[in-house]
Amino acid sequence: MEFVLNSITYDLLEVLNLPNKWEHRLKLLPQETAFTEIELNRLLDEHLVNLNSQSRTCIQEAAAIAFYHQQSTIPVIKTLISDDAPQFKLLTDELALCWVHEGRHYKKLSPFIAYHQKILDNFLDRFWKLYRKLLAYRDSPSQEQADQLRSEFGTLFREKTGYEHLDERKRLTIAKQEELLLVLKHPELPLHNNPAELAARTMVLRRKISYATQIFLGTKAWDIFMSLVDTTRKLGISFFEYISDRISQAGIILPLATIIRSEASVDSFGWSWSAESFPTPNY
Q1: Contacts of 159 (CB under 8 A, 6+ apart)
Q2: Which of 8, 36, 76, 211 is in the most buried spot, having the most CB atoms within 10 Å?
Q3: How far apart are CA 90 and CA 38, in angstroms?
């Protein structure tokens, strides 16, 4: 991983609320220069004395994202689906927020008054009805539907209920309207990032069982095989048959990259990014 200090770095550090004193000192360091992790940490140790671990992490994340945007070795992803963690804000050109994560905020509310509980139950019912309408929209999008769903979103989250905690939570959601309704612009986008979280959970469970690897090569082998297991599963291929095919050199199963390209060639994912006539959000 490499890092760079440039305008993108400082834009992200503002989002991450890095104290100004550290940002000023960072600007005295070499700019537009690629650093390794060791080199960056050495600079931080020498020039940002008493930098706490949280601020250091913010700087590392911002500098890594900035390098990712300015490099040309791999394609820069245009859109990311995530929860509302601040480190994702400038990672891509567009950010879609997970509806499941947003719904969890409301499930955490614990009204003591029965009347407020009834209000919350009614709101959650409408919340998930809107979610299901957005799911249906993805199958047959239209400008008329997009406008209607955008209007329903505004009505649901701007409506005052009298339950203060719920109304405050709704104000926070309405501020994320563009990210939550990005699906109206790009219907190919899923409404949640559960598959990514489940994929990460597999690795976490594996680590809990085996604790950890002892050397870098072990970590690399672990990552490769976990990736192969997940990739073959997603492609509907038996992992054991795949490994057997590779060990025996039978060559019956095509390279996974070839299968992925073949699957992608018949998938319409990405069409809305090039469709000039597709509905443009008007928030």
Answers
A1: 170
A2: 8
A3: 24
Q: Which is it for strands 2-3 and 79-82: parallel, antiparallel or unpaired? A: unpaired
**Distance in angstroms (rounded) separating the CA atoms of residues 69 and 67:** 5
Q: pLDDT at position 36, please?
A: 95
Q: Do 6 and 66 touch, CB atoms closer than 8 A?
A: yes
Which amino acid would we find at residue 13?
A: L
Question: Exposed, middle or buried: residue 269 (CB in 10 Å: 0-12, 13-18, 19+)?
Answer: exposed
Q: What is the pLDDT of residue 277?
A: 47
Instruction: Report the C-alpha gap between 148 and 91 in whole angstroms.
Output: 30
Question: Measuring CA to CA, which residue among 26, 6, 1 is closest to residue 70?
Answer: 6
pLDDT digits (tens, 9 = 90+) for 211-269: 778 888 988 988 899 889 989 998 999 999 999 999 999 999 999 999 998 888 776 66
